[in-house]
Design brief:
Layout: E1 2-6, E2 9-10, H1 15-29, E3 33-38, E4 40-41, E5 50-53, H2 61-78, E6 83-86, E7 95-98, H3 103-109, H4 119-132, E8 139-142, H5 148-155, E9 162-164, H6 179-189, E10 197-202, H7 206-209, H8 211-219, H9 223-227, E11 229-234, H10 240-248, E12 255-258, H11 264-270, E13 273-276, H12 285-293, E14 297-300, H13 306-312, E15 315-318, H14 324-336, H15 338-354, H16 360-370
Parallel strand pairs: 1-3, 1-6, 2-4, 3-5, 6-7, 7-8, 8-9, 10-11, 10-13, 11-12, 13-14, 14-15
Length: 374
């Protein structure tokens, strides 16, 4: 079969982008041809992929998206495919991979009513409706149980069009046999003493991921504990607002902000705690990557995958509504309790042995191809 995958942007370090790549590669491995439509591509193109970058520009994102959709639909009319799989909400999809939360719910609960008068709102609401309306035929691959009731509430989407996927953690995130050696080498490279503590925060979109909250919690640590604690934040985002916050909090010697990189497993093995106090997060793949690496996690309960942390007993889940003081206290408690972090590590590694945290690409490919009777 000829499959068309559509996503607005591809770069190697985004969660949605990595999910797209692993699903597309799995479909290719099964013998199907892959065509990709995008507006931006950064990184290598896998052998055999046909990648088309749309030559569209516009002052506003929603206008650019509409021009992109028209360009893609025109090309598909000239060169039809067997299946159209989208990773952003848009009309004309056979399958939608639901990486993003319900836009209509956010517009109604988090925005001023005047927001819904703008063209931006109408665009994103219309594109979401094209996927989730009852009359749509789009099959929906869900990666978070939390969001499905919201889509049903706002659109009345039939239950049979939703397909819940298991997580899809890459096997290279699991702690290898020489994890201790990798950790030691990493800590030497970053000049971390045996009693130093390293926090990592990993994920593109520093604002949504709550990096500001993490910086406040680090600044609030007791003086002696703060003196031996460092934070490395990694993500594809503009670091400047957070660099200003680092300076204002007097943390310049304690914090590094790095752009996205491909050696994340080393950081998961070399750190002492993953901190992830997100404002909202449909899933949070990095939470499970930390779990299978044996790295304790401190996370807010709004993340779709936070329940795995609680089930595995490999960290602490902060309840809503968010309380900065609670985060500050919990962080200090976890950093001071070496034995508790060691238990979290053992629990995470044991959970990784038995739980299905890895099969999302295979299950997604099953569903994509099954719609054509394979």
């Amino acid at each position: 079969m000829q499959l068309a995958f559509i996503l607005y942007k591809y770069f190697p370090f985004g969660g949605l982008q990595r999910d797209f790549m692993r699903i597309a590669l799995e479909c290719q491995r099964r013998g199907h041809a892959i065509r990709v439509y995008s507006m931006f591509w950064e990184g290598e193109i896998p052998p055999g992929f046909e990648v088309l970058i749309a030559p569209v520009k516009a002052l506003f994102n929603h206008a650019r998206n509409e021009r992109f959709t028209a360009w893609v639909q025109a090309d598909l009319a000239r060169r039809p495919v067997d299946r159209v799989i989208g990773f952003n909400k848009m009309p004309g999809l056979d399958v939608y991979y639901a990486a993003d939360p319900c836009y209509e719910d956010k517009a109604q609960t988090l925005r001023n009513p005047l927001y819904r008068l703008w063209g931006r709102y109408r665009h994103f609401a219309d594109y979401e409706r094209a996927v989730f309306a009852p009359q749509s035929k789009t099959q929906i691959l869900m990666i978070s149980e939390v969001q499905q009731p919201l889509f049903v509430k706002h659109y009345g989407t039939p239950a049979e069009r939703f397909h819940l996927l298991p997580p899809g953690i890459s096997a290279d995130r699991r702690a290898p046999a020489n994890a201790g050696e990798i950790r030691a080498d990493f800590r030497r490279e970053f000049a971390l003493a045996d009693d130093d503590l390293l926090l990592v925060q990993i994920g593109s979109g520093f604002k949504t991921k709550g990096l500001d909250r993490s910086l406040k919690a680090l600044a609030a640590l007791p003086a002696a504990l703060k003196q031996r604690t460092r934070l490395i934040a990694i993500g594809q985002d503009d670091p400047r607002p957070f660099q200003l916050q680092v300076k204002a909090l007097g943390l310049s010697e304690r914090v590094e902000i790095l752009s996205g990189r491909s050696d994340i497993p080393r950081f998961l093995l070399g750190a002492d705690l993953l901190i992830h106090p997100a404002y909202n997060e449909n899933t949070g793949t990095v939470l499970l990557e930390a779990l299978v690496a044996g790295l304790p996690v401190l996370v807010t309960d709004v993340c779709g995958y936070a329940h795995y942390i609680a089930e595995a007993g490999c960290g602490q889940v902060l309840p809503s509504p968010f309380d900065q003081e609670r985060l500050n206290r919990t962080l200090a408690d976890l950093l001071e309790a070496d034995d508790r972090r060691a238990l979290c590590r053992r629990n995470g590694l044991a959970y990784a042995e038995t739980a299905d945290l890895y099969s999302m690409p295979q299950r997604a490919a099953d569903l994509i191809l099954a719609e054509q009777g394979e």
